[in-house]
Amino acid sequence: MLKIFILTLLFEVRIDTVTVKTPKGEAPVRISPEKAEILKIPHVEQELILRLIKEDLRILQKNYITRIPGELARQQATALIFELEDLVNVLYLYTMEFQQELAIPEPMDENRFQKLLEQIGREWNTQNRLAILEIAAKNNYFTTEQIVRIMKIFFRDDDRIEVVKITMQKIIDQENLHLLLNELTFSSSKEELRKILQN
Q: Which of 15, 66, 105, 186 would bridge 141 by S-S if both were Cys, CB 3.0 to 4.6 A apart?
């Protein structure tokens, strides 16, 4: 009897189940047929989910909470709606911040990197070379292998260490930083760079 009641209720309410694809995997979502098509796109963005939740909360408040008997009960239900919307906003902000922390930046592509190497190579003055690199490092990321290629343009260990100092925070594969030690000649320089890399 209960199963018949639930099936009847679902038929009257008209609910579809849509499989939503997210970065963490697929998730089934029970949703009204008129909104089901919206969630059938290849990759659902967080903004879309947030918008759908807010729309549902507004519909709930406008069309159904107003029918609740008793002023106090309606006020309490409305307060819960506001609370849910605010909590969803907070959760969204936390998720966005977490994703930004996890996001791995892309290193400078080979074409642009080659142009940077040529620009540095055209300069004879070491300070000018380092200044160009410093400007490039403000808005770009690098791989360890790219930094090795830059280091090779410089002749002195001190200058090569400066290259690492300028770019170290912008190297995406930090686990390979030890490879930079191979580009130095003297043991004292390697020890100096080793201390920089450990800090």
A: 105
Position 17 scores a pLDDT of 76
Cβ neighbors of 60 (< 8 A, separation 6 or more) are 81
Q: How confident is the model at residue 6 (pLDDT cuts 50, 70, 90)?
A: very low
Paired with 20 in beta bridges are 27
Task: Note the Cα 118 to chain centre separation in Å.
Answer: 32
Q: Quick one: which H or E segment has residue 26?
A: strand 25-31
Mean pLDDT of 90-113: 77
Q: How far is the C-alpha of 82 from the C-alpha of 98, rounded, in Å?
A: 24
3-class DSSP assignment, residue 141: coil
What pLDDT score does 30 carry? 79
Q: Is 142 helix (H, G, I), strand (E, B) or coil?
A: strand
Is the pLDDT score of 59 beyond 90? no
Contact 133, 150 (CB under 8 A): yes
Amino acid sitting at position 124 = W
